[in-house]
């Protein structure tokens, strides 16, 4: 691999652009194809499928290596459970962003090395953008903070939306979102109570159940 | 590709900036139950230091040895590993799968 191709791959990652590196396994010849230009490539049909399913593979002696943007997890609430979710999410390859307008919670001491925003979700989310490689979890229990984030998530194509809270909390949240103009089908995108039902006890087990559900949605779509 | 592979590319870039010679190994084909998915990568330097994984530990040693040669010759190579291989007891995959690993110098 030429070094300038390596630099291009790293730059694409930093800019959240999807690209494919195509290698002729016989000659070693290589080229980079951005997803935006895949339709006009000789391998268009294969590339389209490979990008959509995030699936690298070999075709007729050419290896298509898909470099989709990194997965990203947006956590609403700089809370105790978030502290357990973060190391698991990082192991799974997610870039983590935490948003909580309460300055006492959103401190660097509690979340060292994490992209942290001590602001309201509706102020931060437009800046960071939500896309199909992003999951959003609302963990504050506080409608003032969670609702604006869920509003933004429902208007985006994030692959997962989850919200902490009991069935009763979920019902009153659904009612508020309905009054805000969302349809039942849209509201059904929210996983709540959040996480796989594994009778999780305590923050670390809840974190496992949340990231288990996020992974299921990533791999199986629902 | 595995999400962690971007870390491998960053590692490769970091080693190059330090003036080290580097090769990249990538799983390009798998048959049967292969331990690491297609796209998994390993970065190797001329001294045999390596980071990443192409097989969960079964064939890394052989890949690193080949990579050191490939760094020296500058020519990429496609390696095949599997239990059907005559060297199975030395560097085969215990799981019964087969993998193709493309090893290339970064120049």
- Low-confidence stretches of chain A are none
Strands in their spatial order, largest beta sheet of chain A: 7-6-5-8-9-10
- Overall 3D shape of chain B: globular
Give Rg of chain B in angstroms: 13 Å
Major sheet details of chain A: 6 strands, parallel
Question: What is the ordering of alpha helices and beta strands of chain B?
Answer: HEEEHEHE
| Largest interface, chains and sizes | A-B, 26 and 25 residues
* Tally of DSSP helical segments of chain A: 8
Whole-number tally of structural domains of chain B: 1
How many E strands of chain B?
Answer: 5
Major beta sheet, strand line-up of chain B? 3-2-1-5-4
Mean pLDDT reading of chain B:
85
CATH superfamily of the largest domain in chain A: NAD(P)-binding Rossmann-like Domain
Give a written overview of the molecule.
- The complex is a heterodimer of chains A (222) and B (107).
- Chain A is α/β, with parallel strands linked by helices.
- Chain A has two domains: 3-67, Orthogonal Bundle (Arc Repressor Mutant, subunit A), CATH 1.10.10; 72-220, NAD(P)-binding Rossmann-like Domain (Rossmann fold, 3-Layer(aba) Sandwich).
- Chain A has eight helices and ten strands.
- In chain A, the strands form two sheets. Chain A has a six-stranded parallel beta sheet, sandwiched between helices. A four-stranded antiparallel beta sheet of chain A has the order 2-1-4-3, sandwiched between helices.
- In chain A, strand 3 (57-59) and strand 4 (62-67) form a beta hairpin.
- In chain A, helix 3 (80-91) crosses helix 8 (202-220) and helix 4 runs parallel beside helix 5 (143-154).
- The longest helix of chain A has 19 residues, at 202-220.
- The mean pLDDT of chain A is 94.
- Chain B starts with a helix and ends with a strand.
- Helix content of chain B is 29%, strand content 30%.
- Chain B has one domain.
- Chain B has helices at residues 5-17, 60-73, 88-91; strands at 22-31, 41-45, 50-52, 77-82, 98-105.
- In chain B, a hairpin with a 4-residue loop joins strand 2 and strand 3 (50-52).
- With 107 residues, chain B is an alpha+beta fold.
- A five-stranded antiparallel beta sheet of chain B has the order 3-2-1-5-4.
- Classes of the chains: A alpha/beta (222), B alpha+beta (107).
